[in-house]
Design brief:
Layout: E1 10-16, E2 22-27, H1 31-34, E3 40-47, E4 54-59, E5 67-72, E6 80-88, E7 93-96, E8 100-103, E9 113-118, E10 125-130, E11 141-148, E12 156-161, E13 166-169, E14 177-186, E15 189-190, E16 194-199, E17 211-216, E18 223-228, E19 239-246, E20 256-262, E21 269-272, E22 280-288, E23 303-304, E24 315-323, E25 326-332, E26 347-354, E27 362-366, E28 373-376, E29 384-392, E30 397-400, E31 404-407, E32 421-426, E33 429-433, E34 448-455, E35 463-468, E36 474-477, E37 485-493, E38 498-501, E39 506-509, E40 519-526, E41 531-536, E42 547-554, E43 563-567, E44 573-576, E45 584-593, E46 596-597, E47 601-606, E48 632-635, E49 646-655, E50 662-669, E51 674-677, E52 685-694, E53 708-709, E54 719-720, E55 727-728, E56 736-743, E57 753-757, E58 775-783, E59 795-798, E60 809-815, E61 821-826, E62 839-846, H2 850-853, E63 855-859, E64 865-868, E65 876-885, E66 888-889, E67 896-899, E68 911-914, E69 921-925, E70 937-944, E71 955-960, E72 966-969, E73 977-985, E74 993-998, E75 1013-1017, E76 1020-1024, E77 1037-1044, E78 1051-1058, ...
Antiparallel strand pairs: 1-2, 2-5, 3-4, 3-6, 6-7, 6-8, 9-10, 10-13, 11-12, 11-14, 14-15, 14-16, 17-18, 18-21, 19-20, 19-22, 22-23, 24-25, 25-28, 26-27, 26-29, 29-30, 29-31, 32-33, 33-36, 34-35, 34-37, 37-38, 37-39, 40-41, 41-44, 42-43, 42-45, 45-46, 45-47, 48-51, 49-50, 49-52, 52-53, 54-55, ...
């Protein structure tokens, strides 16, 4: 078995050859330390500060020369490196030689950085620059030159020191274009030039973007871009930038610089190289001058490069032993950008063959681009193989990986040793010899041999004789059965186990010897004088039985008196006669072979016929000192033999507490009283019993022994559970365990190292300080107080490969776009990586939908970030990261939450139409399945599919907010198909969902109902209609549509009217007041809305207001209020001017009248200006409502006297003032309510009982006959006033006389005499003056009669003119009286 070299190459010398190459010389290590076949050398070089970036060059071994030479090229110029050399074999690399430090040579420098111009004048400018990024040595200075554009003969050159990085150029010509060049210099010469053009006196500007990009010559890895340069900014273009979006998924993909072209200001096309095959690209360009970088050009069209074979081989190919016939191959799959073709056709080809063999190459194709392991089956055991892998796609195959070697696991030999022979040396021994196991069948290191032997045709298990080591090929088998034919085989074994035995078996018999004693002696027939004896051949005949010899005598006699008889070898019974009764005889039986007589078997017999079965033995006992872990010594005392000697004993045992009795032996010798019971379990309780057997039969079993517990013993083999050191102990009462392990080698077996675990409950053992990337064999054993048990089966483990035990750290999520999340993380802690991290698995899923949406992204490179693309917009994702190495996947990190940005929503989930009529439809839609953000609203667009009346109107409606999700469309034309399109909006609008619908009733829909007519009742309208054709299905309901007459857009007003109803009442509150409406009715069945009825007559929704809400009523109320206010003012004025007076009764002219004083509220006087003045006190009077007269209840107005000849003077008032009764002392009694309106007169009143005198304008005339006659028409020129009388019975009011009434306030002043007065119209009207002879009115006496239920009509006036005047004045008096007392519920009775 080979190993890696243990020493490095010697005499290593390193020197730089040029600026990029170093030369190595070394001598090979000693062959004894290479430990295998020298496969070559590796030359290593790495920068001082970048030890993880090692340049490796492989050199083949040179076995002829003692000094080896090699080179590493491609190094950086003028850079210090550490260098080293190592030797490697198939198992791996040996140690490195001590690092040596060296530096590559100098070279010319690269271009200077950031060439720029400032202070630009007509004749001078300043040039500045920075050091070259690639110095490639020690800078010695700079070279600057300038010349007029395309005129080299005008060049001026200056050399500057290495610390100068700016220079002022002078002596320029104004407005002239110059080319200025700057280059750095080292000892190796001038470096790359940096040049730019500029016009003197014209400051440069930022360039504009290129235009007119065109893509051509598209190949797998390159394209050509033609373009038109943009504005150069008044200076030359120093560099062209090509940017690209790679693997385009959305418009927001990142732009990356993929190509740069420098110092080509006149370029019009360029070739972009190093592209990825079978990849989408979109390009754009920028141009750069000394001022800066231009804005980007417009993007080109999207192109896809052609397919190509893979460029690289799978990385990190490792090969491990899987089993005795299989190897486990693992690799890192290709990244997606390395597929170079259709991903569905990407796979891997595995090629394997025996190491060192030139033929027998096998391969296997795996058509799974994500697969990273493969198990190579059906290999030979313990065989080394060479394996390599390549990637394939639909175009071809990529390069092969570096070959890796592996050996199948060691197994048991597949055949036995050759040339097996056996030779019997004695009667109990055989010498066995054998040869080597064929090399192809060894399957591992042969650790020894085992000779397997057993008696031929025996059912017993074979016996093994082990010979350790592979040097001895013979063994002497001893203690064999004599003259026994044995089957003999030989097998080889490895550390894994025993191989196959040699075949065929070798038969060999041991030599013969004297036989053993015959067995099974019984006396089936016993008489007083004879017995019959039977037996079986010896159990160990030890040869061919030639004869039997039987000897018998009385037990009390000497042996010389015995009878001897020789029998044939086939004899199995013998009868002896002539015996004495009731005597004991001893019989001896022996067999004879070629070697002589063998051991004799003795038996006693009693010549009697009284034999019986034996009695049970005594209770068996086990002395404690005879108790061992797996056996005990059982002893007993025999019972009576029943005059027939015991021939043998049977021993039984049972395991406590619940086991059944088991026979341990049924052939215990009758000559012994003890027996060793073996094959017991350690530390287990048992009971035993015994029975005896003689010629007659079996005795009863003895009593059971006491419970006996065996001792502890060393543990059994532990049970291996799963992995390296997890075990299940065989039994309790352990002290601990021991772990034996050793490193496995291909060529030898090393000794075990033992680790003790001193804990009986331990089930894990930790083995540290093992060598990395080595295979180990591990065996386990346990021990207790007695000793150590056997070791377990060996287990093999490869150290250095274990899954990471910690998750990735510090997972951070950044939202990049609506479909992309950028995820970064840190690797697991170094001490938990357990190997080299080969990649990471990124698990991501939508929040709370892990089972439905979880996806996996695998990175097969140890990168620490990934861009998760093609996600759902505005969605919360949970992301977890797990590292993996060659051993497997580590634990996941805790899920981290991140959310993508908002994006356009998906299409609305559905569009649905309902309530379709001839002119309207209800459109509803569903929310998008993927909102991708916050829904801000919806846009509904509808248009007729064909023009309507030559016009195709497109209507767009924006619905704000996320609800409602429906809209009523009412401005449709009958029988026209409309197209509806709806899309949702977040930050922008998403895709549309569209559908078509045709207005009007469908086939099978009901016909139109009859034309509706309307009846109106107050604030409600009732529509009446008649049913029409029900269509193909019964009518289910009716719908009422309404429209304002001036708009013409029908809309559903009432939806669900039962089918049995043909009228419907609706409240005017449902309509807009003052608007005229049309109504129509539509029937509905299962086929949809039917045709509408004809429109109803237009009707206004104006409500009929009650009279108190009419305008005229408000005007009347206002006027009445105004009159009341004026009247109140008038009364207050009159009250202030009135004074109290009394009238005395004129006994001469009125003998039949009783004079009563006028009250203040009843006095009426006519002033000198001929104006009637009414004075009323503010009494609580009750007057009938004026509507009684209006409604015809009182059809007769009392006649009023004509005041044409009446005249009052101030004296009448002043002389009687003191007789007035003040209003404050009067009270009125309410009229009884039982007097109906038909019984009362026009005006009634009741007087207070305390009033003794009253005065009224009417009583004044009635009490004076002169005034009564003055109502009559007088001849022309006669000044006697006419009189008119009117009397009416009044109720009697009791009153008390007052001798001294209280004083009253003075009356207000009268109207001035000069005030104009209107002249009354009508014939017979004179002036309103009284004659001097009638200056004092005479009041009439108050009647003492009780009130009458009926009125007494007055005679009609005789003069028409007087009647008209009286009527006018009476009406005036009535109105004034009514207005003053309309709020007092009293009855005023007036007598004129």
């Amino acid at each position: 078995m080979f190993q890696m070299p243990t020493v490095p190459p010697g005499n290593v010398q390193v020197e730089a050859v040029n600026s990029t190459t170093v030369r190595f010389t070394w001598s090979a290590p000693s062959p004894q330390f290479i430990n295998g076949i020298n496969q070559g050398y590796k030359l290593l070089a790495w920068e001082l500060t970048r030890s993880n970036e090692v340049s490796v060059m492989t050199a083949r071994p040179n076995f002829q020369d003692s000094v080896h030479v090699g080179h590493i090229s491609g190094l950086k110029k003028y850079t210090e490196y550490y260098t080293s050399v190592l030797c490697f074999t198939t198992p791996g690399d040996g140690p490195r030689s001590p690092p040596q430090r060296t530096r590559t040579h100098e070279d010319t420098p690269g271009a200077v950085g950031h060439l720029s111009f400032t202070d630009i004048l007509d004749t001078s400018l300043k040039v500045s620059w920075k050091e070259p990024q690639e110095k490639n040595g020690v800078l010695t200075g700079y070279r600057i030159s300038w010349e007029e554009f395309n005129r080299t003969n005008t060049r001026v050159t200056h050399y500057l020191p290495n610390l100068t990085q700016e220079y002022k150029v002078t002596g320029l010509t104004a407005l002239t274009t110059y080319t200025i060049q700057v280059a750095a210099m080292t000892a190796k010469g001038q470096g790359q030039l940096s040049a730019s053009t500029i016009s003197s006196g014209v400051p440069p500007e930022l360039p504009g973007p290129p235009t007119n990009l065109a893509i051509s010559n598209i190949g797998p890895r390159s394209v050509t871009i033609q373009f038109k340069p943009g504005y150069d900014g008044k200076t030359s273009i120093s560099r062209w930038h090509v940017e690209a979006q790679i693997g385009i998924i959305g418009e927001n993909e990142e732009w990356l610089v993929v190509h740069q072209l420098t110092n080509e200001p006149d370029a019009r096309s360029l070739e972009v190289l190093d592209l990825n095959p079978y990849t989408f690209y979109r390009f754009r360009m920028r141009q750069v001058n000394i001022v800066g970088v231009s804005p980007p050009s417009q993007p080109s069209r999207k192109i896809e490069t052609l397919q190509a074979a893979p460029d690289i081989a799978p990385a990190n190919v490792t090969l491990r032993t899987a089993s005795e016939t299989s190897l486990w191959l693992r690799w890192v799959p290709l990244p997606e950008w390395e597929y170079n073709g259709n991903p569905d056709l990407v796979g891997y080809r595995v090629q394997y063959s025996k190491a060192g063999s030139k033929g027998g190459v096998l391969s296997h194709v795996i058509m799974d681009r994500l697969e990273r392991e493969f198990t190579i089956e059906d290999l030979e055991e313990w065989m080394e193989y060479e394996v390599r892998v390549q990637a394939i796609n639909g175009i071809g195959s990529g390069p092969w990986s570096q070959p890796v070697h592996g050996r199948t696991r060691e197994s048991v030999p597949s055949s036995g040793p050759t040339n097996v022979s056996a030779f019997a040396t004695t009667s109990s021994s055989i010498l066995v010899r054998w040869g080597e196991v064929p090399e192809t069948d060894r399957n591992g290191l042969i650790l020894g041999y085992k000779v397997v032997y057993k008696e031929k045709d025996s059912d017993t298990a074979p016996n093994f004789w082990e010979v350790e080591g592979n040097t001895t090929h013979s063994v002497q088998l001893s203690t064999l059965g004599k003259y026994v034919l044995f089957e003999i085989q030989v097998l080889a074994f490895t550390r894994i186990g025993d191989g196959r035995s040699s075949s065929p078996s070798i038969l060999e018999r041991t030599l013969d010897d004297v036989p053993g004693p015959p067995v099974g002696i019984l006396f089936p027939e016993v008489r007083t004088s004879s017995v019959r004896l039977i037996w079986q051949p010896p159990a160990q005949p030890n040869g061919i039985i030639l004869a039997y010899q039987i000897t018998y005598r009385r037990n009390s006699s000497s042996s010389s008196a015995a009878t001897v008889d020789v029998l044939s070898p086939s004899a199995r019974q013998y009868t002896a006669s002539g015996l004495k009764p009731e005597a004991v005889y001893v019989y001896r039986l022996t067999a004879q072979t070629r070697k002589g007589w063998g051991e004799a078997a003795e038996a006693l017999v009693v010549t009697t016929e009284k034999r019986a079965r034996p009695q049970p033995t005594s209770r068996p006992v086990v002395p404690q000192e005879e108790v061992q872990a797996r056996r005990v010594l059982l002893s007993w005392e025999p019972g009576s033999d029943g005059l027939s000697p015991v021939r043998y004993y049977t021993v039984q045992y049972r395991e406590l507490p619940d086991s059944n009795w088991t026979v341990h032996s049924a052939s215990v010798s009758h000559e012994t009283n003890s027996y060793i019971v073996d094959r017991l379990k350690p530390f287990t309780s048992y009971q035993f019993r015994v029975k005896a057997t003689n010629d007659i039969g079996d005795s009863e079993y003895s009593q059971e022994s006491e419970a006996i517990t065996t001792l502890q013993d060393a543990p059994d083999k532990p049970t291996q559970r799963s992995c390296l050191l997890h075990l299940t102990p065989p039994r309790p009462y352990l002290f601990g365990g021991r772990v034996r392990f050793r490193e496995l080698h291909y060529d030898r077996i090393r000794s075990f190292t033992v680790r003790t675990v001193n804990s009986p409950s331990a089930k894990w053992a930790d083995l540290a300080d093992l060598s990395k990337h080595k295979r180990y064999e591990i065996r386990l054993s346990v021990y207790n107080a007695v000793g150590e048990g056997p070791s377990s089966s060996p287990q093999e483990v490869f150290v250095g490969e274990a899954v990471p035990t910690s998750p990735s750290q510090n997972v951070v999520i950044q939202s990049s776009t609506a479909t992309q999340l950028d995820v970064t993380w840190d690797p697991p802690p170094l001490d938990t990586q357990n190997g080299d991290i080969q990649g990471y698995k990124i698990y991501f899923w939508e929040f709370q939908l892990q089972n439905e949406t979880e996806r996996l992204r695998t990175l097969f490179l140890p990168e620490l970030g990934v861009k998760l693309k093609n996600l759902t917009g505005y969605t919360t994702y949970m992301i977890s990261v797990a590292a993996f190495n060659a051993a497997g996947d580590g634990p996941r990190s805790l899920p981290t939450r991140g959310r993508t940005q908002q994006a356009a929503p998906s299409v609305p989930s559905f569009i649905h139409f309902s309530e379709l009529t001839t002119t309207s439809v209800n459109v509803s839609w569903g929310e998008p399945k993927q909102a991708n953000g916050i829904i801000e609203g919806y846009r509904l667009v509808y248009e007729p599919c064909t023009p309507v009346d030559g016009v195709s109107k497109i209507v767009t409606v924006d619905v704000k907010g996320s609800a409602p999700l429906w809209m009523k469309i009412k401005d449709l034309a009958d029988g026209v198909t409309y197209n509806y399109r709806i899309r949702a909006k977040t930050l922008t609008y998403g895709p549309e969902v569209e559908a078509n619908i045709t207005t009007g009733p469908g086939e099978g829909a009901p016909g139109p109902p009859g034309e509706p007519f309307i009846s109106r009742y107050g604030t409600a309208l009732t529509l009446h209609w008649t049913s029409g054709d029900q269509g193909r299905a019964p009518i289910t309901r009716y719908v009422i549509e309404a429209r304002p007459s001036d708009e013409g857009l029908w809309d559903i007003l009432i939806k669900d009217i039962p089918k049995e109803v043909t009228s419907y009442t609706l409240n005017l509150d449902m309509l807009r007041e003052g608007v005229t409406y049309d109504f129509r009715v539509i029937a509905v069945n299962d086929y949809g809305y039917g045709s509408p009825s004809a429109p109803s007559p237009s009707i206004s929704a104006q409500k009929v207001s009650p009279f108190y809400e009419e305008w005229w009523f408000l005007v009347v109320i206002a006027l009445v209020g105004l009159i009341f206010i004026l009247l109140l003012v008038f009364i207050l004025v009159i009250r202030g001017q009135s004074k109290k007076y009394t009238k005395k009764t004129d006994s001469g002219n009125h003998s039949n009248c009783t004079a009563l004083p006028l009250t203040h509220g009843e006095m009426v006087r006519l002033d000198e200006g001929r104006f009637p003045t009414l004075e009323l006190n503010n009494r609580r009077l009750s007057v009938k409502n004026s509507f009684c007269r209006k409604n015809g209840i009182y059809t007769r107005s009392p006649p009023r006297p004509s005041p044409g000849s009446l005249h009052y003077s101030d004296e009448d008032v002043s002389t009687k003032y003191n007789d007035l009764i003040p209003a404050e002392s009067s009270s009125l009694t309410e009229k009884p309510s039982e007097i109906s309106d038909s019984q009362g007169s026009d005006s009634e009143y009741e007087m207070d009982q305390s009033r003794q005198k009253t005065h009224s304008f009417v009583n004044h005339y009635i009490s004076d006959p002169t005034y009564y006659n003055s109502w009559r028409r007088q001849p022309k020129g006669v000044s006697r006033p006419p009189a008119y009388g009117y009397s009416q019975p009044e109720p009697l009011v009791e009153h008390e006389s007052r001798q001294h009434p209280p004083p009253v306030p003075p009356l207000p002043p009268l109207l001035p005499p000069s005030a104009p007065s209107p002249q009354p119209q009508g014939q017979g009207q004179g002036t309103l003056f009284r004659s001097n002879g009638s200056r004092t009115p005479t009041p009439s006496l108050l009647s003492s009669d009780p009130p009458q239920p009926a009125q007494h009509p007055l005679p009609a006036p005789q003069q028409p003119g007087l009647c008209r005047s009286a009527t006018y004045r009476g009406l005036l008096l009535f109105c004034l009286t009514h207005s003053s007392h309309s709020n007092n519920n009293k009855t005023l009775r007036t007598s004129l």
